[in-house]
Design brief:
- It contains 13 helices and 5 strands.
- The strands form 2 sheets. The protein has a 3-stranded parallel beta sheet.
- Helix 7 packs across helix 8.
- The radius of gyration is 21 Å and the shape is globular.
- It binds tryptophanyl-5'AMP (TYM).
- Tryptophanyl-5'AMP (TYM) binds next to strand 1, helix 1 and helix 7.
Length: 334
């Protein structure tokens, strides 16, 4: 709780091309929650180097993501938007929390298993301890709520376990965070294989809608989306492709699956798929335009980067000092 408001923290990686899943599962909810909470939104660049990156591309993408947060509707005067690497407390707390996390817990993380099979030539220690850095991100700000997509719930559960373990030894040091999942869009699936989540690292370009796709590409990808032979717009387990499209349409329009079933009653996929495409274009096109405008405003972005890193550092330091004292590090002589 800070200034009568609960604290919210979330982050996104600047690796690859962001997808509609990132937007509907996370960014969109961040915007809708931003008035109610004291918010910290990080561009988590330290997480990105667990997989090899081209340094100049990573820098460019991180800056673009920073602008995208603002373009999506997060005012950098009201929301603390910052680069993780500008606040060294993240890495420092992660080290301490590493000493309170068990190998067995990290071995169970599905993201670690997925990423190590995809990058078998580079299974580094950072990839393994990634969830501990994520726990540090969250716990540093005494976070109450963490809006994420479903794929991050396991990491959040681990964060809670680490915090509870630490608190049980040293007293009430960390706030125990709760996940926040949006009503629609918490798990957007691949357009080509609805049993897999939509992911930036999918090799099939038709499987994902990228946030920077132009309207024609978006329409084409939806027309090609895998559905099934039933040809009716029904929200059912047996129709995972259509279910996914209904989820996307629902997250974009605010309509419930029942309302959508009614709207398309008696109509086929030939009408439904373009309608989903248009709903997505109507959200992404303005976002792309705002992002392009913002990127031209270099001074504004630079100022936001600087001011917010200082603000984040201030709050992060408070928690880090407390933790350092609890574990027995000597106080600095100032
Ligand atoms: P990342 O960068 O992979 O994804 C950013 C956010 O997008 C959500 N997301 C999805 N939601 C619905 N459907 C999908 N197909 C989909 N794909 C991605 C993710 O759930 C996430 O909310 N480890 C995190 C970043 C992170 C973080 C944190 C998040 C680092 N520290 C602290 C919250 C709090 C990650 O790699 O997300």
């Amino acid at each position: 709780m800070r200034d009568g408001k609960k604290v919210l923290f979330s982050g996104m990686q600047a690796t690859g091309n962001l997808t509609l899943g990132n937007y509907l599962g996370a960014l969109k909810n961040w915007v809708s929650l931003s008035d109610e909470y004291e918010c910290f939104y990080s561009v988590v660049d330290e997480h990105s180097i667990t997989v090899r990156q081209d340094p100049s591309v990573l820098r460019q993408r991180a800056r673009k993501l920073f602008a995208l947060y603002i373009a999506a509707g997060l005012d950098p005067e009201k929301n603390c938007i910052y680069y993780q690497s500008h606040v060294s407390c993240h890495a420092e707390l992660a080290w301490i929390l590493n000493c309170f996390t068990y190998m067995g817990e990290l071995q169970r993380m599905t993201q670690f298993k997925d990423k190590s099979s995809k990058h078998a030539d580079n299974i580094n220690a950072g990839l393994f301890t990634y969830p501990v850095l994520m726990a540090a991100d969250i716990l540093l700000y005494q976070t109450d709520v963490v809006p994420v997509g479903k794929d991050q719930l396991q990491h959040l559960e681990l964060t809670r376990d680490i915090a509870q373990r630490f608190n049980a030894i040293y007293g009430d040091v960390f706030t125990i965070p709760e996940p926040y999942l949006g009503k629609a869009g918490a798990k957007i699936m691949s357009l080509q294989d609805p049993s897999k989540k939509m992911s930036k690292s999918d090799e099939n370009e038709n499987a994902s809608i990228y946030l920077m796709d132009d309207p024609d590409t978006i329409m084409r990808k939806f027309k090609r989306a895998v559905t099934d032979s039933e040809a009716s717009v029904r929200y059912r387990e047996e129709q995972p492709g259509i279910r996914n499209l209904i989820d996307i349409y629902s997250a974009c329009t605010g309509k419930t699956p029942e309302e959508i079933e009614k709207e398309f009653d008696g109509k086929g996929y030939g009408e439904f798929k373009p309608a989903v495409g248009e709903a997505v274009v109507s959200i992404l096109k303005p976002l792309q335009d705002r992002c392009a405008d913002l990127e031209k405003n270099k001074d504004y972005i630079d100022q936001a980067i600087k001011n917010n890193a200082e603000k984040a550092e201030y709050f992060a330091q408070k928690t880090l000092r407390k933790v350092q004292k609890k574990v027995g590090f000597p106080e600095k002589i100032r």
